[in-house]
Amino acid sequence: MIDSVKTKFGRISAANFKPKPWLQNAHVQTVLPKMLVRSPQVNYINERIKTPDSDFIDLAWAMPHKSVNVRGIAILFHGLEGSSQSHYIKHVIFELNAIGLGCVVMHFRGCSGEPNLTPIAYHSGATFDAQFLVPIIKARYADKPLFAVGFSLGGNMLMKLMAHHAYLPIKASICVSAPLNLAASSAAIQVGFSRVYQWHLMKSMKRNLLTKMQTVDMTASLKVSSADIAKMTTFFEFDEHITSVLHGFRDANDYYEKCSALHDLVLIDKPTLILHAKDDPFMDDRVIPGPPLINNHVAYELSEFGGHVGFLESLSARSKLWLPQRITHFLSEFLC
């Protein structure tokens, strides 16, 4: 359970997450929250915003009950191939709505169920849509504090945003299970059972790209055929031939080097909480920053267990998931 102790900035601390003994397994933590913990019902209001490059961003709004005073707005950035329907998004929204925070999920391009209109898509360092969106949201709620929460890929992107675009009116941010060292994560997910996650995500990534290629002319952007894409099996292959090519990087390694947020953390100058689990099957200990990278604006909490965006405490307790509680407690520190 979350206690009332305030977040400790400027250091790496042990997360206050203690799962039941039988839940102390990386893959149990990663898989069971989705399979065995029922997601709350979230009633979204969808909105489409046109972008300056003639594309669109799909938003999903979830506001508190009309009887609850809106105390602020939280922008949520999902993970790779995630969406507003991701289980972790729904659980967090439910808790944030309960304390009076309105939530809006920014779908990365192509993740809302409809292919986007231009060859470019999204990646771990793609801050351009968030840069465009944040001022729009703030203008609508000028008198309310604005927060941001990023999960996995969305967390790495958010850390790049916070480090290099401090002018944006985000009061505080949270980063969960982010692959802060992209090369290390690309390698880690090719080992052991983690390859199952890679297979699952690659299946979705390839399907969405091939669907998009039916309506968007990609011949001038990509040097590979549909058949080549269908044969890809690893993130590295996809990033080498798709991600890096579409977004102006020399190759996959160049993309990993330039878009990893690990060494950018020291530049963050607003309250930021980073949550990681040592047993996260999507990465290894190379994503853990050394003390020099943790400045007085950053709180880094590391747990022994938790898997990837898991943090399942129990299957019998009323509050089964620790993560939504921790996020809610942190943001509550910055509400009047």
Description:
With 336 residues, the chain is α/β, with parallel strands linked by helices. The protein has a single domain, classed as Alpha/Beta hydrolase fold, catalytic domain (Rossmann fold, 3-Layer(aba) Sandwich), CATH 3.40.50. The protein is 33% helix and 15% strand. The protein contains ten helices and nine strands. The protein has helices spanning 26-36, 87-98, 128-140, 153-164, 182-188, 194-212, 226-231, 235-246, 252-259, 322-332; strands at residues 11-14, 45-50, 56-62, 72-77, 101-106, 146-151, 172-176, 272-277, 298-303. The protein has a nine-stranded mixed β-sheet with strand order 1-9-8-7-6-4-5-3-2, sandwiched between helices. Helix 2 crosses helix 10 and helix 8 packs across helix 9 (252-259). The chain is globular and about 55 Å long.
Mean pLDDT, all residues: 96
Estimated helix fraction = 25-40%
Ranges with pLDDT <50 over ≥5 residues?
Answer: none
Task: Assign the CATH class.
Answer: Alpha Beta
State the oligomer.
Answer: single chain
Number of strand elements: 9
Taken as a percent bin, the fraction of beta residues is 15-25%
